[in-house]
Amino acid sequence: MTKILKGAPVAAALNERSIALRRTLEERGVVPTLAVVRVGERPDDLSYERGVCKRCESVGVAVRSFVLPENASEEALLDVLREVNEDAAIHGCLLFRPLPRHMDERAVCAALRGDKDVDGITQASLAGVFTGEPVGFPPCTAQAVVELLDFYGVALSGKRVTVVGRSLVVGKPAAMLLDRKNATVTMCNSRTRNLSEVCRAADVLVVAMGRRGAIGADCVKSGQVVVDVGIHVNEAGKLCGDVRGEELMDVVEALTPVPGGVGAVTTSVLVGHVVQAAARACGLEA
Fold first, then answer.
1. What is the CATH number of the domain that holds 68?
2. Is residue 97 very low, low, confident or very high in pLDDT (cuts 50, 70, 90)?
3. What is the mean pLDDT of the chain?
């Protein structure tokens, strides 16, 4: 019978870890603080922001919101980031993307200080992912994949792991984080030849294609652990992933659900990054 790897207990464990470190910081008079920077009123941004604020409150992380109208100038947004960079009481920044089309997203992301980048959007953070140096933090979803596998005791050292997807948000950083666990990582994309065969060869399959229902029973084998990073809305208005999960039941050893899998862990990773950034800022090991 396929084991369902739910994200809620993983998130709870991460929250407890963050709370313990936050208490240590409070003894030094430090309150971990997140700056939420948003341009416009996109419904998905607002929904995620509510979730982030709720999680911050539960852990004891303060939130400061910086909201600009959709038609704000790029310079106005850069002014906000300069304020965030210069404020020592702000330890991390969540910048909602995509930005409006009239803004240069690459330039805006580059304006954020790497040590305050808790969502892995700067080149400094991505360099840290590839080198293993503690500069910034990995993209939250990529780290959530590894945290979930660690929590459920999925052995990675020496195992074959296939990552389907090569974005800088999930695929590439997840591959690097899994490599740090001494996994033998294969990274694929939608144009990989014989993709189903490559997927079946893996012990652990991480799917982050961004294509609804792209992976089905023909891509898996008995004994595999499958992590579905995708999040979509189907014709019936229900959330679903990149994997056709119903086809995999009673075939693979373990599977993350959508919703309730990796996505449930991501916010806890983000809040944990804020607490760790505060710890780094005052010289504590995080």
1. 3.40.50.10860
2. very high
3. 95
Number of domains in the chain: 2
Per the structure, the complete domain to which residue 96 belongs is given by 28-114
Q: What is the pLDDT of residue 283?
A: 87
Per-residue pLDDT at 3 exceeds 60? yes
CATH of the domain at 172: 3.40.50.720
Same domain? 158 vs 231: yes
Examine the pLDDT at 183 and tell me if it is beyond 70: yes
- Burial annotation 95-111 (CB, 10 A radius, 16+ → b, else e): bbeebbeebeeeebbeb
Burial string for 2-37 (b: 16+ CB within 10 Å, else e) reads beebbbeebbeebbeebbebbeebeeeebebbbbbb
DSSP-derived secondary structure for 241-260: -SB-HHHHTTTSSEE--SSS
- Over residues 208-231, mean pLDDT: 96
- In a domain, residue 282? The reply is no
